[in-house]
Design brief:
- The chain is mainly alpha-helical.
- It contains 8 helices and no strands.
- Helix 5 crosses helix 6.
Length: 179
């Protein structure tokens, strides 16, 4: 989904840095977005809905974990795929470590995808980075209350898939975007 060369130039990603691959030019901007995200939403772990969702993944890995806690007596099947996909990691890490692992893998991916989406609309890499950072400072919403960055849970992974699909479709790679 990250192009370079003529495609990147045609989409406003060219210029003096055109000799560097787009992926290479995305590293520092992605780290800037990650730093802003960590500053604004990094602590504590677990945070917000992670207090429910991360222990549920751990419980999927270890049925004895929090067995007597009535708050975990529900079905919670809406995150079945996430819970089972990440249970091997949650089973060997503390809830805190598991939360950090997910954040440090998926938050940079989300940052890169958001920046890339901005460049897809003709905005330069650094302008898109600034826009994403301002959006983060604005609590990620002009209205509503949804957030993309701020925790590690099923929707974090889902947003990586969604934004990746959007980028694939906008690059006219329809089958990849639909996959």
């Amino acid at each position: 989904v990250l192009e370079s060369g003529a495609v990147a130039t045609a989409q406003g990603d060219g210029g003096s840095g055109a000799r560097l691959s787009l992926a290479g030019r995305m590293v520092l901007p992605t780290l800037v977005v990650l730093a802003a995200t960590l500053l604004l939403y990094g602590w504590p772990v677990p945070r917000l809905s992670e207090e429910l969702y991360l222990p549920l993944v751990r419980r999927t890995a270890d049925a004895a974990y929090l067995r007597g806690d009535w708050t975990f007596a529900g079905d919670f099947s809406e995150h079945w795929v996430f819970d089972h996909l990440f249970a091997p990691f949650a089973g060997v890490l503390s809830v805190n470590e598991f939360g950090w692992l997910g954040r440090l893998i998926f938050w940079p991916a989300l940052g890169a995808l958001l920046i890339r989406l901005g460049t897809r609309f003709g905005i330069g890499v650094w302008a898109a980075t600034g826009a994403v950072c301002l959006w983060l400072v604005g609590n990620q919403a002009l209205f509503g209350g949804e957030w993309i960055l701020g925790s590690f849970e099923a929707k974090t992974v889902a947003y990586v898939c969604f934004l990746g699909a959007l980028l694939a479709i906008t690059a006219r790679k329809i089958p990849l975007g639909l996959a």
